[in-house]
Structure formats: C-alpha cells, structure tokens
Amino acid sequence: MQVRVWKIDRGAVLEQVKRWADDLLRRVAEVEAVVLFGSMARGDATAHSDVDLLIVLRQSDLPFHERGRSIPHPPVPVPVELFPYTVAEVETMLREGWGMAVPAARDGLVLAERDGAWKALISG
C-alpha cells in the first residue's frame, strides 16, 4: 500500500489567487469584489481542501449557473469553487442570514475590491 501525504502551501496559493483577483478586477468591470472564504481563508486547509471564492458582481442578467463560465479560474494547484453573486443577491443573503455570503462576511479575506464595495456590503 502506498500513502501520499502532501501539504498545501497556503502562502503560495494566496499569493497566486490575490494576483488573479487583482487582474480580474482590472479586466472585468462588473466585478466589485473577490473574497476568499472557507478553510483556506481561516488557515485550516488540508490536503483535500479547495479554494472558495465569492465573486461579487455589480449586476448580471445571466442565471447563476451560467455566470461562472465567463470567469477564468485562478491558476492554482488545488480545486477552485467560484460563487458569482450580484450585489443585490449578496445583500439579501446577508440580511436573511443564509448562503455563501455569510461565511465570507464572517471569516473571509478580501482579495480585491472596487472602491470599498465589500466593506460597504458587510457594514449594511
């Protein structure tokens, strides 16, 4: 039996994702903020963890399941989950206490934001 154990280099992953988020904000006008949340943000990621990213969009006419198709994934050696929600959807989640915006607001790391957009959302 062969056992492989590896560890995620959190610092390297964060650096790569931060560069990607900054670039995404520059290239895509609809993106208001990119927030890392989950185990990678909290610092308790394991070898089986992924990168969870809340992408806050100014607005979108696309259904949720189609939004992520136009957003390239960051070039990192671990799985990535993108959660592209509009500002209005994030406001609803935070107000009603459900959805991915809640853990992102609680323990997320803001990787990039336009004009304090994330701060304004979580401060109500």
- According to DSSP, the number of beta strands is 4
Strand numbers in spatial order across the main sheet: 3-2-1-4
CATH superfamily: Beta Polymerase, domain 2
CATH class descriptor name: Alpha Beta
Write down the Rg. Answer: 15 Å
Taking the sheet with the most strands, its summary is: 4 strands, mixed
Could you name the ranges where pLDDT drops below 50 across 5 or more consecutive residues?
A: none
Number of domains: 1
Q: Strand-and-helix sequence, N→C? A: HEHEHEHHEH
What is the overall pLDDT average?
A: 94
CATH names the topology as Beta Polymerase, domain 2
Shape: globular
Amount of helix: 25-40%
User: Structural class of the helix and strand makeup?
Assistant: alpha+beta
**CATH architecture group name:** 2-Layer Sandwich
Number of discrete helical segments: 6
What fraction of residues sit in β-strands?
A: 15-25%
What is the straight-line distance between the termini?
Answer: 54 Å
How are the elements arranged and paired?
Blueprint: H1 10-27, E1 31-37, H2 39-42, E2 51-57, H3 64-67, E3 80-86, H4 87-96, H5 101-107, E4 109-113, H6 117-122
Parallel strand pairs: 2-3
Antiparallel strand pairs: 1-2, 1-4
Question: Can you tag this structure with a few keywords?
Answer:
124 residues, alpha+beta, Beta Polymerase, domain 2, four-stranded mixed beta sheet, 6 helices, Polymerase_NTP_transf_dom, nucleotidyltransferase activity
What is the compact description of this entry?
It comes from Thermaerobacter marianensis (strain ATCC 700841 / DSM 12885 / JCM 10246 / 7p75a). The chain is an alpha+beta fold and 124 residues long.
